Amino acid sequence: MAEEAEDMWHIYNLIRVGDVIKASTIRKVVSETSTGTTSSQRVHTMLTIQVESVDFDPGAQELHLKGRNIEENDIVKMGAYHTIDLEPNRKFTLQKTEWDSIDLERLNLALDPAQAADVAAVVLHEGLANVCLITPAMTLTRAKN
């Protein structure tokens, strides 16, 4: 799950055409009554798609992943197209046929906030010292003495 804009950038660089994404999404469902009238409603569902295109909107901090559904459910048939929108704080599962060294290096970089630290600081106060790393999103205390 991405927690901030920088995480979305890392995810954008991890997902490729052919990868499989599973996430909660909203699907418009149209139903027809016996009299022929139709109504539509938006339904939350869990979908698994094989990614055919990846689009990143940095302004909205969203990834738009288009692909075909590969796990049928009550709402979406197998092979139906859908676009899953990933945004910060939305859980998802990414499956790849192979995680290459570049993917693994990117994951290590994204998961180690110390890699993004802009400044290191030592904060002293009467017998107490804190070693901190300052990133754009947080301050991490690395040592206390």
Automatic annotation (TrEMBL):
Q: What is the official name of this protein in its record?
A: ERF1_1 domain-containing protein
Q: Which GO terms describe its biological process?
A: nonfunctional rRNA decay; nuclear-transcribed mRNA catabolic process, no-go decay; nuclear-transcribed mRNA catabolic process, non-stop decay; ribosome disassembly; RNA surveillance
Q: Which GO terms describe its cellular component?
A: cytoplasm
Q: What is the lineage of its organism?
A: Eukaryota, Metazoa, Ecdysozoa, Nematoda, Chromadorea
Residue stretches making up the eRF1/Pelota-like N-terminal domain: 1-112
Offer one Pfam family short name for this entry: Pelota_N
